[in-house]
Amino acid sequence: MRSLLLSSCLFLGLLFVSSVTFAEGEPCEVLPVPSEEIPAGVKSEATSPEAAKKMRDSLQSAYRKIKSLKAEFSQSSYLKSLDLSEESNGKLVLGIPGKLFWEYEKPEPQTFLLKDDEFRLFQPLEKQLIIQSTRKYFLSDIPVSFLLGLGDLAEDFEVLSGCKAGKVVTLTLKPKPRESAKGGRDPGLKELKLSFSTVSYFPEVAEILDREENRTSLKLSKLRENEALQQSTFTLTVPPGTDIQDLRG
């Protein structure tokens, strides 16, 4: 099950789901967010394509104002090939641009650090530290770039649909064609759902499916934005005797 945690440590990665769009006003699915309750009796409706694009741009604009973020997360993961499900949770600290400290507390402790194009994974129960190049580890870095403040939703994604219920909006995004590092079209990234409140326009919920139909849902809560971060926040110290595997090549 550790491989599932490893492959879905962020609400980023390889995405796949069938392309579904809705006509304006039709019923659709909104992913609830922690910060905004949908009033009883309020039904979800599809937005117009123009409105969905404007909300995508507002999401990007609001995210550009964030320089740091602390949050708690809960994650649901499903690995279809093994028919396995897992619930996990933990805390994260984000420094924009380019820094992320991601710590799992349950079901077992694991710590991820992204910094300076480098990825580190510490598994204390195995007494093991893995070091890898970020670009080598992630087959597609578009969602990573957005999360770390290095990407642009309008530049990287097309809007397939928007769905709104009260002040909660869910956007379904499809990545624009992109060349992979090996010279061919990126085979991994297909589709991503982001859900947010129109009060903050911060993506609190994400839903991901990959080509093997593995599902990852991520929810952020107790958000604390733009607090001063100490330099030591983005360091990972391991105890003596830790097995260090440096795979950067």
Kindly describe this structure.
The protein has about 250 residues and is mainly beta. The chain has one domain (about 1-245): Clam (outer membrane lipoprotein receptor (LolB), chain A). It has five helices and 13 strands. It has helices at about 1-5, 50-65, 135, 140-145, 155; strands at about 45, 70-80, 85-95, 100-105, 110-115, 120-125, 130-135, 155-165, 170-175, 190-195, 205-210, 215-225, 245. Strands 1-8-9-10-11-12-2-3-4-5-6-7-13 form a 13-stranded mixed sheet. The longest helix is centred in the first third of the chain and has 16 residues, at about 50-65. Residues about 1-20 and about 180-185 have low confidence and may be disordered.
